[in-house]
Structure formats: C-alpha cells, structure tokens
C-alpha cells in the first residue's frame, strides 16, 4: 500500500547561526489541512522553505509523496501548489499572460479551471498585475495554484494580508479543495482563529523546536485552562501543568487534560482552551 502521508519531515534542521531549526519531525496525512503555527521568528517559513528546497536544509529528511524532495524535485513540482504572502509574478503581465506562462511550466495546466477561478475571484484577465491590489495578487496566486491539478498546497502566511472577507473566501476554498480525499494542505498562519476554523491538524513550532503536531479536535477536547487562587496553585501537581500566567491574584494554568484536572481540583474553575490560548501559554507562560 502507498504511504498515506503526503509529506513526511524527519529531524529537519537548519542552522542560520543565530537561529536553529532543531530536528523538527511531523507528518501530513493525505486528505487533511494542517495548520503550522508559531510566533514571529519561530521557524515556520524556514520549515516551508526547506521543504520546498528554496533553502538548503542542514540535516534531516523531507519526503513528499513518499519521495525525497530534492532527488524527485521535478516529479514533485507538478503536484505541488505554492502560495506565499508575497507573490512575485512579473507585474507587467496580465492574468491571461500568466496563464500562458504557467501552461508551459505545468504539465497538468487546466485553462478551464483557471478561467473559472479568475471569474470567481473577479480578477480581470487583461489587466496588468501592477494595477492589482494585494488581495487580488494573492487571489491570482491561488488561481494558479489551484489550476494545475496539484495534490498538495503549501501556503506560507498567504492569507495574512487579506481582509476578513477575502480570507474567509480563501478558507472556504481550502475546505473545498480537500473535499477530494487525495488533496492535502499545509498552511502557516499567525491568524490562529482561521486555522482553528479549517485545520484538521495543528503543528506548533516554538523557537525552532516542534512543540506538538496533533489532530486539532484532540487539542480542543483535551487541553484546558484552570483558574485558581494561590492556595490551589501551590498544591498543583507540576507534571500536569504546561505553563501558567498570573493575573493579579488569579492564576491561569494551561493543562493537557482538563477533565482530569477538573476531577483532581474540584474547587478550581476549569474550561476549554482555544488554539490561540494554547500557543500564548507555551510562548508567554511561566513554568512552575
Ligand atoms: N536567509 C536567512 N539568513 C539568516 N537567518 C534567517 C534567514 N531566513 C530566516 N532567518 C532567521 O530564522 C529565524 C526564523 O525565521 P522564519 O522566517 O522561519 O520564522 P517564521 O516563524 O516564519 O516567522 P514569521 O511569522 O515572522 O514569518 C529568524 O530568526 C530569522 O532571522
């Protein structure tokens, strides 16, 4: 049987001297949307650039569709759609001319789908890209990425500069895209609420290290925030606590198993945690 991971990253490292991406490993199963989260400078773009071999990795292994990402670069390219926050199509061209160019690059180029996307995104096919707004440029990049029968989309902060309405359109598009069970998406974003909406998996990188890569529902169902005063906080079992934040006389504590915590500390108030809160606690919280 074929591997069911479209992307496998094993101990991926990149040493920039003052920043090290440190043996990051995770796998993206076929048919899912994976959100890649982390603070500014955490290493999200470095990870994606190493996957795409835009940056040479210092160590580790990257398999795309079960094949080494460098040895099989040409075979992989056709099945990969990529969108960055800045897309540098030559801006003297029109979408129609970009289409002609892309049809020479991708063997699976599909004019009909491309024209449908241009229409859906209300992109004028004969207007020069230099006169496009930022949102229009990103939409054009999506139109290209979605028009050559790609099986894996990799998006690096592609939605960050878009207004909430276009962002919502793009998120719907990603959900549409994975309706085909052969399609998968890796999407990095600061906007954790977007990822909370669409991602099936969340991979969290902090200071160049992998903190976790889990199914989103598992995170949402299990993690929790326990609110308590100093008396309870002092007796909390250190091993159950991910991190805590002190606000006036209250302690807010991130726990990995909120049901267990609620049973163990019946006098504390325990509630669910959002992906954003989980990230905030890991990045800004203190360890007991
Ligand atoms: N070409 C480079 N040369 C040297 N250092 C680099 C290079 N590219 C990135 N870095 C460093 O790697 C670190 C991680 O950057 P990266 O862009 O991967 O983070 P990020 O998680 O994508 O952040 P952001 O959300 O701000 O885009 C930063 O400290 C950055 O300075």
TrEMBL record:
InterPro entries: AAA+_ATPase (IPR003593), ABC_transporter-like_ATP-bd (IPR003439), ABC_transporter-like_CS (IPR017871), ABC_Transporter_VariousFunc (IPR051782), P-loop_NTPase (IPR027417). GO terms for molecular function: ATP binding; ATP hydrolysis activity. Pfam families: ABC_tran. Keywords: ATP-binding, Nucleotide-binding, Transport. Residues 1-232 form the ABC transporter domain. The keyword Nucleotide-binding applies. This is ABC-2 type transport system ATP-binding protein. It comes from Catenibacillus scindens. The lineage of its organism: Bacteria, Bacillati, Bacillota, Clostridia, Lachnospirales.
């Amino acid at each position: 049987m074929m591997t069911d991971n479209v992307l496998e990253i094993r101990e991926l490292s990149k040493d920039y001297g003052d920043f090290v991406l440190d043996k990051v490993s995770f796998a993206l199963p076929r048919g899912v949307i994976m959100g890649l989260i982390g603070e500014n400078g955490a290493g999200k773009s470095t990870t994606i650039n190493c996957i795409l071999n835009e940056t040479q990795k210092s160590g580790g292994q990257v398999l795309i569709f079960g094949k080494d990402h460098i040895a099989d670069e040409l075979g992989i390219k056709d099945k990969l759609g990529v969108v960055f926050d800045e897309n540098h199509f030559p801006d003297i061209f029109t979408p129609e001319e970009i289409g002609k160019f892309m049809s020479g690059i991708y063997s699976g180029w599909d004019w009909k789908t491309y024209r449908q996307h241009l229409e859906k995104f209300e992109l004028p096919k004969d207007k020069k890209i230099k006169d496009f707004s930022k949102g229009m440029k990103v939409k054009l990049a999506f139109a290209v990425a979605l028009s050559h029968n790609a099986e894996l989309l990799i998006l690096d902060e592609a939605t960050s500069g878009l207004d909430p309405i276009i962002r919502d359109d793009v998120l719907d598009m990603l959900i549409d895209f994975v309706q085909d069970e052969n399609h998968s998406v890796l999407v990095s974003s600061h906007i954790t609420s977007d990822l909370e909406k669409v991602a099936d998996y969340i991979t969290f990188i902090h200071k160049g290290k992998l903190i976790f890569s889990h199914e989103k529902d598992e995170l949402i169902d299990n993690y929790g925030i326990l609110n308590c005063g100093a008396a309870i906080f002092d007796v909390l079992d250190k091993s159950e606590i991910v991190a805590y934040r002190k606000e006036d006389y209250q302690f807010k504590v991130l726990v990995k198993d909120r049901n267990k915590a609620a049973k163990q500390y019946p006098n504390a108030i325990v509630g669910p945690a959002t992906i954003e809160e989980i990230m905030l606690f890991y990045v800004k919280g203190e360890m007991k």
